[in-house]
Every structure is written in structure tokens, then in C-alpha cells.
């Protein structure tokens, strides 16, 4: 779709204005004539993006447009069912998934898409409640959903399962399957400054990390080749089909201000209490290791609903490692030795997640050699 931003005029802008007004983010448009994407619309878009965990740039691109379209629906506005050719998505689907999870039925990670797992969870609910298990959320099913009190306390079942899976996986890295996702690629070069391209740096980082992971006995898979740039949904699908234990997406940031600098980590979370606790823990380990080892400014961890975080079925983190638009960060990223330090920090952070606080060392002190010795000792003790 064509990007919509300040200064644009036309029917598409009118649609955006009407949606923002329906969400209470803009007053109703009472003016005659063509709709204009003005300052007020841009500010309302930014507020909406912030509420939804999207990039707050005030521009309506595919992700923001999809979120605006989804936000129009409330549970009960329409019947919901699994459609193979074009799955239904919307806030009503998200509300249904949340309700089923509260009642103890596993829909998978709530992603606002009515997929196969949601259908199976709905059929199970209908069967248990004595309804016809047709997998369709119509008026009768909706009434039944509203009449029951939540069964599950202390976290969403799917997210509790993530924690249990990590605990059962044990502390050793050998045998674990990690998908590494170097951002951009192919014709999509990402951020570029002075002929330095984000796609090339993330590819290099991914290969350095892959080599270290393989050395420890892990199975490392990369989502793209050097000349390809699959959509984020395909990258998430690749990790799901591979049955990965973890998904790491590597990016480098940019900003209009050359003073912006630092590293930030992002995990799945809606901002209203639904979050991947393991993803959040992993993001914290990654963030602390990179900050301690590199001295990059700590821009902290954040919940987001980006496709690579929302559509993956395993703990997933996206990292923005430095700013190419900042001279200091760019200079360091161009140094291969610095990229080695980053790769080692990422690997150690993954190890820390599986250690679950046992046999741990202070942040920034665990070396690659320490890690190999630890793996060897575990193997001999097994």
C-alpha cells in the first residue's frame, strides 16, 4: 500500500480520519471538502501507534493500517470462524483469544488472527460447555463465554508453557535450535550511511553468532540468504516450521538526530498485560550483556507487537544494536572486533536464559571459553 503521511489528501486519508475518530483519538470530521492528513491526524496516528506497540513515526504504513483496521472490531460485532483462504483478524479475535485463555483453553499466543489453534480451542470450549462444537463464535457461544469466570490465574497458559519448556530444556546449549534473523537483505538494504548498509552488518553479525552457536553444539538456522529479504511474516513462519527453541532478530537503528545512540531490545507484549515472560527475560539478558560488554547506551527493553514477535511460537527478541546515524556507534559497528564482542554477548545471554540463575557469573564476565568449558563439564557429568 502507499504510505500515508502529513500533507496527503484523498479518500484513503478520510478512512484513516474516520477510524481515528471512532477510536476517540480525533474529533469527528465536520468539515466539507477533501480530507487532509494534517498535524492533528499525525499526532493521533502517533498516539495510536504508541498504544499498539508500533513504531511511532506518524506514518500510516502496512502495519499501522492493519492495526487500524483490526481496531474497528469489538467482540460480538460479527461471527468469527477459521477461514483457510483468508483468516479473520481484529481486536474481536484478540478478545476471544484472551477470553479462551482465561478459561484455560489454549489458543497459542494471542495474535488477533483466527487460526487453527484458536478454532480448536473454541471447539473444546463449546464441547465442554455443551454447545455444538462447530468452531464458530456466534451469539450463543458469546453468551456462554460471558457467563463463566476465569479459571487461570497468575499468567496466560501459553506463556506459562513457554517457561516450563525452558525449565525442561535444561542448562546445556547442545541440541537447542535457534533461528537467527538478520534484518533486511536483498534489494532492501535497510538503513545506509556513507555506503554502509544495515543489511550487510546484520548478515555479518548473524554469521558470527551462527559460528559460535554451532561450536557449542547448537543448531543455528538463518532466515535469509545474503541476497534475499523475505517479509517478516515469512521469517516468523520459517521459525515456526523449524520448531525453533528461540528466535533472534538483528537490526541496526537510525534516527533523524545524529545524537541518538545505543542498543534496545524488544519482546512480544501488547502493553496491556499480555507479554511473553520468557521473551522479556531473554530480552533483559541480551540487553544487559551487550551494554556491559560494549558500553553502548542502554535504551532498555520494550514490549512490541511486530510480526516477528507476534507470529512466532517461541521466545522471540528483536535487537536494535546501535545507530548508523550516530558517528560513534557507526564507527564501532564497522570494527570486526566489536562485532565479535556483540556476537559473544548474544550467545552468553542465550546461555544465561537456560541456566535459570544457576552456576551464573556477573554480567559481562562470562567468556566464550568459559561457556565451552561449562558445556563440556555438563556433557561429562551427564
Would you list the SSEs in sequence order as H and E? HHHHHHHEEEHEHEEHEHEHHH
Helix count equals 14
Distance between the termini: 55 Å
Tell me the strand percentage band. 5-15%
Structural class: alpha/beta
The quaternary organization reads as single chain
Q: Give the radius of gyration.
A: 22 Å
Q: What helical percentage do the residues reach? A: 40-55%
Based on CA inertia axes, which overall geometry fits?
globular
For the residues shown, what is the average pLDDT? 88
Strand order of the largest sheet: 4-1-5-8-6-7
Which consecutive residue ranges, at least 5 long each, have pLDDT under 50? none
Query: How many strand segments?
Result: 8
Largest sheet: 6 strands, mixed
Amino acid at each position: 500500500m502507499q504510505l500515508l503521511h502529513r500533507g496527503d489528501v484523498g479518500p484513503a486519508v478520510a478512512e484513516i480520519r474516520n477510524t481515528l475518530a471512532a477510536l476517540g483519538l480525533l474529533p469527528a470530521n465536520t468539515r466539507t471538502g477533501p480530507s487532509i492528513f494534517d498535524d492533528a491526524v499525525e499526532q493521533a496516528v502517533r498516539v495510536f501507534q504508541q498504544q499498539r506497540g508500533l513504531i511511532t513515526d506518524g506514518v500510516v504504513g502496512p502495519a499501522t493500517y492493519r492495526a487500524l483496521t483490526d481496531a474497528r472490531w469489538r467482540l460480538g460485532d460479527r461471527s468469527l470462524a477459521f477461514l483457510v483462504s483468508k483468516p479473520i483478524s481484529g481486536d474481536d479475535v484478540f478478545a476471544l483469544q484472551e477470553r479462551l485463555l482465561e478459561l484455560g483453553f489454549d489458543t497459542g499466543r494471542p495474535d488477533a488472527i483466527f487460526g487453527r489453534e484458536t478454532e480448536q480451542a473454541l471447539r473444546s470450549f463449546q464441547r465442554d460447555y455443551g454447545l455444538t462444537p462447530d468452531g464458530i463464535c456466534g451469539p450463543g457461544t458469546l453468551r456462554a463465554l460471558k457467563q463463566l469466570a476465569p479459571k487461570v490465574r497468575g499468567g496466560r497458559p501459553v506463556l506459562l508453557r513457554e517457561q516450563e519448556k525452558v525449565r525442561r530444556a535444561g542448562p546445556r546449549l547442545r541440541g537447542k535450535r535457534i533461528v537467527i534473523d538478520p534484518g533486511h537483505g536483498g534489494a532492501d538494504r535497510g538503513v545506509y550511511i556513507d555506503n554502509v548498509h544495515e543489511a550487510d552488518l546484520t548478515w555479518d553479525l548473524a554469521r558470527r553468532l551462527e559460528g559460535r552457536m554451532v561450536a557449542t553444539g547448537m543448531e543455528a538456522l538463518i532466515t535469509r540468504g545474503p541476497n534475499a529479504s523475505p517479509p517478516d511474516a515469512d521469517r516468523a513462519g520459517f521459525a515456526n516450521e523449524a520448531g525453533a527453541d528461540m528466535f533472534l532478530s538483528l537490526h541496526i537503528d537510525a534516527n533523524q538526530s545524529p545524537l541518538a545512540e545505543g542498543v534496545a531490545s524488544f519482546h512480544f507484549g501488547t502493553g496491556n498485560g499480555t507479554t511473553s515472560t520468557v521473551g522479556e527475560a531473554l530480552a533483559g539478558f541480551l540487553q544487559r550483556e551487550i551494554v556491559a560488554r560494549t558500553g553502548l547506551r542502554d535504551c532498555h527493553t520494550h514490549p512490541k507487537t511486530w510480526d516477528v514477535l507476534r507470529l512466532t511460537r517461541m521466545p522471540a527478541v528483536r535487537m536494535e544494536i546501535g545507530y548508523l546515524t550516530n558517528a560513534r556507534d557507526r564507527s564501532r559497528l564497522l570494527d570486526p572486533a566489536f562485532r565479535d564482542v556483540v556476537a559473544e554477548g548474544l550467545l552468553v545471554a542465550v546461555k544465561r536464559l537456560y541456566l535459570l540463575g544457576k552456576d551464573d557469573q556477573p554480567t559481562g564476565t562470562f567468556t566464550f571459553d568459559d561457556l565451552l568449558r561449562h558445556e563440556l563439564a555438563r556433557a561429562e557429568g551427564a
